[in-house]
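Here's what a typical entry looks like (Toxin-antitoxin system, antitoxin component, HicB family):
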Amino acid sequence: MTAKTPKTSKTQKMTNVTAHAIRENGWWVADFTCDGKEYGTQAKRLDQLVDMVKDASALMTGRPEDTFDVHIVVDMAEYISEVEKYKEAAAQARDAEAKVAAASRSAVAKLKKANLGVRDIATLMGVSPQRVSQLAHA
């Protein structure tokens, strides 16, 4: 006797769902379209909204939750503006850190090439001798 393998959601086509979310009365409220129909759902926290949209989509279509690829768009300019400022500052900080790392490695290499000792290099650079050793081997 051969058992038939049940059809799983892995063989089903993924449905992309874009949900537009706003913050209202302490809830995140999302509106979305699935199979040409408008739906809505809500969650207390933004990180719960994807699961809520998947759950609602599955409930309304009869398809498994894992067949929905959900993207949340927060439609609140005041939130997005602040987050964008943070992301820009974080990117600038990462760039600055990379420049500092490159400059410190270069300085250590040049000072060692000039036959300065680890402790002298550390004193000149304002770092520990251990850090100089790390930079020399980086």
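Strands lie at 15-24, 27-34, 37-43, 68-74.

More examples are in the samples folder.
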